[in-house]
Amino acid sequence: MPDKITTKTKKEPKTVEPKGAEEKTETAEGKEEQAKKHIVHHRKEKYFEAVGRRKSAVARVRLFTKNQTFVVNERPLNQYFTIIRQQKEVVSPIEKMKLTDKLGAVIKINGGGLSAQSEAAKLGIARALIEFNPIFKKRLRKLGLLTRDARIVERKKFGKKKARRAPQWGKR
Question: For the whole prediction, is pTM greater than 0.90?
Fold first, then answer.
């Protein structure tokens, strides 16, 4: 009779996950995969890289020979720079070298306002064009596209209201 021994087994506590937790992990993994694909995509293609600056704006530019699109901070050029003058300014170095149908760019910009950012991107593209073809340097220099505008905001001094504006002076 003692052949069959029945013992009570301890039930393991169930792990209860909040609703949507599985979805969150899937989306996080999906984003990581997308990011990896994005990085791998750029590593496969050959690109020419340069940096442009204006005031406090810094633009890191990568020129690609395969795609002809312009992407600024992971958005299309016309969505990021809504003013047409700024869009034309960014593309001007490539237009003046007559390479609009051959080159595209991925631009990452930090700091400054939109106007300074567009000028920084313009300088970055011009410098990247020199990496692409050093013969362009003379033409770009003549067009004034390689000149870094060094004007930045002057610092405020003590005893003044702004950089140079003195407090109002009373006669007595």
Answer: no
